[in-house]
Amino acid sequence: MTFELAPSGRSKCRGCGQAIAKGELRFGEKLPNPFAEGEMTHWFHPACAAYKRPEALIEALPQAAIEVPGREALERAARGAGAHKRLPRIDGGERAPSGQARCRQCHETIEKGAWRIRLVFYEEGTFNPSGFIHLGCREAYFETSADILDHVLHFSRGLAADEREAFGRALRGG
Ligand SMILES: [Zn+2]
Ligand SMILES: [Zn+2]
User: Fold this and answer.
1) What's the CA-to-centroid distance between 127 and ligand 2, angstroms?
2) pLDDT of residue 174
3) How far is the CA of 29 from the centre of ligand 2 (A)?
4) How much distance in Å is there from the Cα of 108 to the middle of ligand 1?
5) 41: CA distance to ligand 1 center in Å?
6) Does the pTM of the predicted model rise above 0.90?
7) For residue 65, how far is its CA from the centre of ligand 2 (angstroms)?
8) Ligand 2 center to residue 141 CA distance, Å?
9) 92-97 contacts, C-beta under 8 A, 24 or more apart
10) Which ligand has an atom closest to residue 13 CA?
11) Ligand 1 geometric centre to CA of 59 (Å)
12) Which-ligand-closest: CA of 12?
């Protein structure tokens, strides 16, 4: 595992799918290469790794060979996400574009236009889309009443500012 400045803008973050800018700090996790011998490195924005690969990030922080800006905040985010085994599955929030998906927690359909939380399951280095839960089912599903607003919004790039606010109100107001 390693922290380094991205030598180009070609690497993509496994956590959010966005490019990592040249010169930006990136976190690399070495995993066995499923296609060939040896290892390959999976790159992340440090904050994306804190939320989606919390144990790996916490393990790597003390060994970082270069300065990691916002290190305490990263560690706090990783400890929060790592405290409950399902929290790293959070992949953002959105309004259901149709009324077809069922909630993984209560198994009822999620009404069109209702807020839902996207989930991904991590398997062998890959985050696979794994359905949704109602906002109101989050405490039962994640088995915690921890505040997940920053965590969900971190992976909700598609939401405009007013939608982020509306999401926050829905989350906090119940
Ligand atoms: Zn990212
Ligand atoms: Zn539900």
Assistant:
1) 22
2) 54
3) 34
4) 31
5) 15
6) yes
7) 44
8) 9
9) 92/117, 92/118, 92/152, 92/153, 92/154, 92/155, 92/156, 92/157, 92/158, 93/117, 93/118, 93/135, 93/152, 93/153, 93/156, 93/159, 93/167, 93/171, 94/118, 94/156, 94/158, 94/159, 95/163, 96/132
10) 1
11) 19
12) 1
Ligand 1: centre distance to CA 18 (Å): 6
**pLDDT in the model for residue 27:** 98
Mean pLDDT, consecutive 10-residue segments, the chain of 174 residues? Answer: 94 96 96 87 97 97 94 97 97 96 98 98 93 98 96 96 97 79
116 Cα to the center of ligand 2, angstroms: 9
CA 126 to mean position of chain CA atoms: 12
The token pair that represents 42 in the structure block? 């999976």
Question: 19 CA distance to ligand 1 centroid (A)?
Answer: 8
Position 36 scores a pLDDT of 85
Question: Which pLDDT tens digit goes with each residue over 23-61?
Answer: 999 999 999 888 888 999 999 999 999 999 999 999 999
